[in-house]
Amino acid sequence: MGARIVAEVFIGLLQLDPDSYLSVQPNWVPTLPTHDGTPASFRMIDFLTFAGVDPTSRGQ
Length: 60
Known about the structure:
By secondary structure, the chain is an all-alpha fold. The protein is built from 3 helices and no strands. The protein starts with a helix and ends in a 9-residue tail after the last helix.
């Protein structure tokens, strides 16, 4: 419950700030690399790989 409140406060601040990326570039999407090279197929494993905490990066 607490995490949701914090997240909603952050989203509200971003929505109300005229200089936030949500206001300046409302169509922005992340451009992190994916395993198959297509941005539309971004999955959790791609996020973990980017962060360096996926099993392959950790040698598991």
